[in-house]
Amino acid sequence: MALEDLEVELAVVLGRTRMPLNRFLRLGRGAVIALDAAEEDIVDILANDLPVARGRVTVDRGAIRVEVTELVRRPQVTRERGARISALGAAFVMEPSEAA
């Protein structure tokens, strides 16, 4: 299988909210969840749960689409000893022998 044939899971975050657990447990069919977003807001686009782009939601003949407006800058890859890479970027960690 070629690298280009691998599948990536995409998700679009329309908004977020918080609610008490007791209210969450009572959610059922027909429940409405208010989000902290407006119709014209820019949305986050995730690939395998990592932010990769931002975009604008559009509706065209009943089809919901997301137009990519910007790409999220990827962290630089480093080969330095003690570097750890995460979704938030590179963090340098001193080795115990280096801290003394």
UniProtKB/TrEMBL annotation:
**One MF term in the entry's GO annotations:** cytoskeletal motor activity
- The entry's keywords: Cell projection, Cilium, Flagellum
Listed transmembrane segments: none
The record ties this protein, via Pfam families, to: FliMN_C (PF01052)
Task: Respond yes or no to whether keyword DNA damage is given for this record.
Answer: no
Q: Name one GO cellular component term.
A: bacterial-type flagellum basal body
Q: Which InterPro entries match?
A: FliN-like_C (IPR001543), FliN_T3SS_HrcQb (IPR001172), SpoA-like_sf (IPR036429)
Domain of life per record: Bacteria
Give every Flagellar motor switch protein FliN-like C-terminal domain span.
Answer: 3-72
Query: Could you give a single Gene Ontology term from the biological process aspect?
Result: bacterial-type flagellum-dependent cell motility
User: Which protein family is named in the record?
Assistant: Belongs to the FliN/MopA/SpaO family.
Protein name, as recorded: Flagellar motor switch protein FliN/FliY
